[in-house]
Predict the structure.
Amino acid sequence: LRFIDPLWRIKKFLNVGSEALLSESIKIIDDFTYSVIRRRKAELDEAKGDDNGAKMKHDILTRFIELGEDPESNTTEKGLRDVVLNFVIAGRDTTATTLSWALYMIMTHPHVAEKLYLELKSLEKERAIEENVALVECDTEDSVSFNQRVSQFAQLLTYDALGKLYYLHAVVTETLRLYPAVPQVSCSLYSSSTLGLTVSKIYLHI
């Protein structure tokens, strides 16, 4: 609301009104993001010190944390906080939009739905054998048994297992190609810059 409130600097200085609410909201977000970072660092330390060779999760946050351990890196705690916050904010609506379009495309292309179903069914059977798990008998007309089977399938999924779902990956990437969640990004320069050519202090569409 700062663009319609000429007194926001005074409110910020006095920490009152909307600026006080903003500060409180930022603190809640910071507490959450820093807790995610601390938890992942603890998991990494535990995995490194595990003589049994516990598997380490190599997700994006882990890679940024490992980058921060490099003496030549300038990655800070605040930098990691910004990375996590970017995941949370950017990954909400974009994920929802992409899933909506993916489901629409699957439902309007029965042959794709069939191939995707067979791939998921094959992975479920393979993982059940690996984990020595008896799959719950499922009836699509019975919501209880259906939900139990879905929950069981979710528990069988791992990072490695997801990597075997090549057709699912193709479905998602094709959905993103046809219906990108963010078709353009608006950026702005703090000041005019020269990188081979002069770019004025304006908003840019990427």
Summary: The chain has two domains: 1-92, 109-206. The mean pLDDT is 83.
